[in-house]
């Protein structure tokens, strides 16, 4: 399979071209500034031999090979480790090993593989590129560095231009519709098939997210410190202060896990890009495991809150109050999990939407001023777990308006409203997926239509197989089959008052300078 370079001036859309290729194809993708969790220990990456890295002998000599993390910055925290160039070499070697292990013919997309890499590693990269190509993998890459070296190695060159973004130049002798070229490139890729999830995947997640990451330890330290202050501040409280004590405990619980949850957007982006580079088996599985970890953290914090509340005041020892604390805290913290992990929205949007349940609880639950509010607004109290919680608290339930008479029904409604935001989000995702599947069906239909086109078939042959001259002849024949030779000749000529007419396959300076040939 060939190696194809995408070239063009700065701002011409080279990276955009690769991003579009990644969206519509089953490809392995390394971005120009690819993210990887900084605290991920290189030696713990599953099925990866780090000794093949050209710089790994340095860490082996220092005795730090088993302790070196990927390094970098995530969620505003810098972790020392590999340099940017070393991380790029790590991801590149990881793809080489994954491609060798799977035995499938992959479409590998690389954005600036030489960026941040010193010249002494260039021969190593070139050798690996040639190895991938010789093993039948289709490689598409963009580079502004060492262009001459890659042009010698490349089988095809695609030139993009900012003048006309709808067409690209193929091998500097004819132009083609951008959409058709993207479909042609994506027609060769197959989805990388990981082995079935095993215990090793769980061990990898545990090693990275609990042993290597300091975030969980930070939550533990914050929670213990402030609940210790809670203990000494509210010690020997009166039963008449139930509500104030519970509000104080809920505030501590919320802010104990909140910093951890705010980092989920950056975590999601890093894990998604790791999956594109085949670091782990599944971003979906990692998101699920992260969701379980977040839920466990929330439950542990609520359990500590339950213990501290009962340490300072008596009368709330029943297990139903532990459930109520979890539903109450979960209603304001789980939105951070679903928005942070299961959307592609930026940090500010996710945080704003996730904070709405917390703010609405203050205004609409009526728990801060029982019975207050205009008639229509007061009815919104039934949407909040805090309302049903307060209907269980001695000394508060007498003031709550409209509490369910049956305790079992009250607990059931409390559990349902505690997960209300999650339920709404699931409905939103279901609707979004339906619309997405409709759009995807149109893309597949368009691709199927293109694949029946003789010009498309000739383009695929030119890019991926057969003699280039032969494929160009077929290209001409496909055009002649739909139009007369005279029409082709007229269209392929570009008149110029100062120079002879350019012929059909003569290289053009810019993809926008001639009409589209395919």
UniProtKB/TrEMBL annotation:
From the UniProt entry, list the residue stretches annotated as the region Disordered. 470-518
Transmembrane spans? 215-235, 241-262, 288-309, 321-342, 354-377, 409-431
Per the UniProt entry, the signal peptide is: none
Q: Which InterPro entries match?
A: P-loop_NTPase (IPR027417)
Keywords, ordered alphabetically: Membrane, Transmembrane, Transmembrane helix
Name this protein carries in UniProt = Uncharacterized protein
């Amino acid at each position: 399979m060939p190696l194809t370079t995408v070239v063009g001036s700065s701002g011409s859309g080279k990276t955009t071209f690769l991003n579009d290729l990644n969206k519509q194809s089953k490809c392995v993708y390394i971005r120009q500034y690819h993210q990887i969790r900084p605290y991920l220990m290189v030696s713990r990456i599953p099925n990866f031999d780090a000794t093949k890295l050209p710089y790994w002998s340095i860490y082996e000599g220092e005795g730090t090979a088993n302790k070196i993390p990927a390094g970098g910055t995530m969620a505003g925290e810098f972790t020392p480790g590999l340099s940017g160039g070393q991380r790029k070499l790590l991801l590149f070697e990881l793809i080489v090993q994954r491609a060798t292990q799977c035995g499938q013919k992959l479409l590998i997309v690389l954005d600036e593989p030489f960026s941040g890499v010193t010249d002494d590693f260039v021969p190593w990269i070139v050798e690996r590129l040639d190895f991938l190509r010789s093993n039948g993998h289709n490689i598409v890459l963009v580079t502004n560095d060492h262009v001459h070296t890659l042009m010698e190695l490349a089988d095809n060159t695609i030139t993009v231009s900012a003048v006309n973004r709808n067409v690209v130049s193929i091998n500097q002798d004819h132009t083609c519709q951008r959409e058709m070229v993207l479909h042609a490139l994506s027609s060769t890729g197959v989805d990388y098939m990981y082995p079935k999830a095993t215990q090793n995947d769980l061990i990898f997640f545990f090693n990275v997210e609990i042993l290597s990451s300091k975030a969980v330890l930070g939550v533990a330290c914050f929670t213990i410190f402030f609940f210790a202050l809670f203990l000494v501040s509210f010690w020997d409280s009166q039963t008449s202060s139930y509500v104030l004590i519970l509000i104080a405990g809920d505030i501590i619980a919320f802010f104990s896990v909140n910093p951890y949850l705010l980092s989920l957007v950056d975590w999601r982006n890093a894990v998604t890009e790791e999956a594109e580079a085949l670091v782990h088996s599944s971003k979906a599985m990692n998101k699920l495991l992260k969701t379980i970890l977040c839920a466990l953290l929330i439950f542990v914090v609520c359990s500590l809150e339950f213990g501290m509340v009962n340490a300072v005041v008596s009368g709330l020892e029943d297990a139903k109050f532990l459930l109520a604390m979890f539903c109450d805290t979960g209603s304001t913290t789980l939105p951070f999990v679903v928005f942070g992990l299961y959307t592609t929205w930026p940090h500010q949007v996710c945080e704003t939407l996730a904070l709405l349940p917390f703010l609405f609880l203050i205004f609409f639950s009526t728990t801060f001023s029982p019975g207050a509010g205009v008639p229509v607004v007061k009815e919104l109290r039934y949407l909040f777990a805090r309302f049903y919680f307060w209907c269980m608290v001695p000394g508060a339930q007498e003031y709550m308006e409209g509490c369910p008479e049956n305790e079992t029904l009250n607990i059931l409604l409390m559990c349902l409203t505690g997960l209300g935001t999650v339920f709404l989000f699931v409905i939103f995702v279901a609707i979004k997926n339906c619309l997405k599947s409709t759009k995807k069906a149109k893309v597949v239909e368009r691709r199927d239509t293109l694949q029946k086109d003789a010009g498309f078939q000739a383009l695929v042959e030119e890019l991926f197989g057969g003699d280039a001259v032969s494929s160009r002849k077929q290209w001409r024949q496909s055009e002649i089959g739909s139009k007369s030779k005279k029409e082709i000749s007229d269209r392929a000529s570009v008149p110029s008052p100062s120079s002879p007419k350019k012929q059909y396959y003569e290289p053009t300076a810019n993809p926008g300078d001639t009409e589209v040939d395919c």
